[in-house]
Write a structure and sequence with these properties.
globular; alpha+beta
Length: 104
């Protein structure tokens, strides 16, 4: 479907920007490597995929293709109908970092 796009941050840069670790659009893609999709002009469509553990119709993989740094790629779990909302399970670590429980 999409790659998760945004500004690449090191771990110190991420915690400088989000001291409490609560970057709502931040994806950890490596040991100390992050993508911050908060800026709509530098991010892509993947930043709009909502959370659902029950209705997930797509999933993500952290992958490296060739010499480029790790990236986060989204794939479908099944055929997606035109106009259907996209969901993936953000995972427990996301909700723990946000300090809240998911609504699902």
């Amino acid at each position: 479907l999409f790659d998760y796009e945004g500004e690449r941050l090191t771990e110190p840069e991420m915690f400088e920007r989000y001291p409490d670790g609560q970057g709502r659009y931040v994806a950890c893609i490596g040991v100390a490597s992050y993508i911050d999709g908060v800026n709509e002009e530098r991010s892509g469509l993947a930043r709009w995929i909502n959370h659902s553990g029950r209705r997930a119709n797509c999933f993500w993989k952290k992958q490296r293709f060739g010499p480029s740094s790790p990236a986060m790629h989204f794939y479908t779990l099944r055929d997606i109908a035109a106009g259907e909302e996209l969901f993936f399970d953000y995972g427990g670590a996301y909700w723990e970092a946000m300090g809240c429980e998911p609504i699902d």
